[in-house]
Amino acid sequence: MATILIIDDDDAFRDGLAETVRDLGHMPLEARSGEQAFERVHGQAPPDCIFLDFRLPDRDGLAVLEALRSTASLQHVPVVMLTGYATSDNTIGAMRLGAFEHLTKPVGRDEIAALLARILATRADGPAPQATRTFAHETPSHEPQLLGISEAMRDVQKRLGRAAGTNSTVLITGETGTGKEVAARVLHRASPRASGPFVAVNCAAIPADLLESELFGHGKGAFTGAHTERRGRFEEAHGGTLFLDEVGDMPLAMQAKLLRVLQERQITPLGTNRTVAVDVRVVAATHRDLPAMVAAGTFRQDLVYRLNVIPLHMPPLRERVADILPLAEHFLASVTGPSGTAGKHLSADAQRLLVSFTWPGNVRELANAIERANALAPAALLTREDFAFLFDQGGGCAAAIPASFIDLPLNDALAQLERALIARALALAGGNRAEAARRLGISRQSLYTRLAHFGLSDADPGA
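The line above is the sequence of DNA-binding NtrC family response regulator; the predicted structure tokens follow.
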């Protein structure tokens, strides 16, 4: 039995709502004003839920909600706002202050029952233990961190540590969103060049005819619009690290010039005859399959040799499942409300969903999902429903090909898609394999075979 506080000056509505709450097996507390409500709960255990009307005799409901949120014992109690006339202002105001839900009167019994069931299930689940979910031993830092406890990430961290003590060129490979630039920044910070500049260049974002000037600089009058001499990124990175992101998108002609610079450690600014010696450690990154591009004639093999002195592969998040929950809790801990209130937590069903999702956008997608759920969830505990958008294909995008699939061989893309569909079906079925098989239109035995093939056998311990 839960305690439900009802704050409303409409006696008939308040009595009717109290009767409904009582019929559902809970204990109602009634108050006609904000002041009376605080008197009712003073010195008592906080209620499990509060229904709060917008129009009250002493102050408006938003002011009462704000006072609730500033009271330590009540700041996490779910509050359902009630109004006879919903407007954009009162709806947005309520949700901004952390209301769980916003209802327009009259409210039916079934709607109240469903809402209370949702609220009380959320509160009963409770936050997951945090000791094993966060990177407790990591030193807090505002700098990018390459976090992970999985074997795959431990291997990356070890190789990065060994590479940091050298000046050798590093090639970082991995899918979009796996943290290639973070790895490059951590490598720079751990190297003897840490006091020097870190200069990042996205080779895919700069037009081909401007890339040479961007990297090597240009002299006055080198081309139309070159009114002054300009230093290039290689010169700017002198004594430090130059990060060439998406180097796989570099045009062939530019690849030849980059190869020469890597060999001679000298640059020639565009439109000049002078050479400039540069002391730069080059770290390159790409999500593309360079050996396949070499075979297709779109990337120089000799440049691959020059870039790939120390290879560093960033594993996709689906291959480092042990890191998903610690990363999720880390991102939650780093996101606070506008008033600096305590962060939210993941329920058990949300945790099961996160570890079973395939994360095509990898760590970047996980971080964005956590920030979105944290911002929009009405309660302090994030549930499966708060992450429903992960499976939402709305907006006419169902036929779009995910970016991570575009450069994969057909069989690999089909395997990833099949794995994602199975994980989605399991998540939507709450881990029930029979229901997941029904959703997929396959037999349970066929599902078991696929689970074993994709290593998903332990993804749903409750199945």
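Note on the example: The mean pLDDT is 85. Residues 43 and 73 are 10 Å apart (CA to CA).
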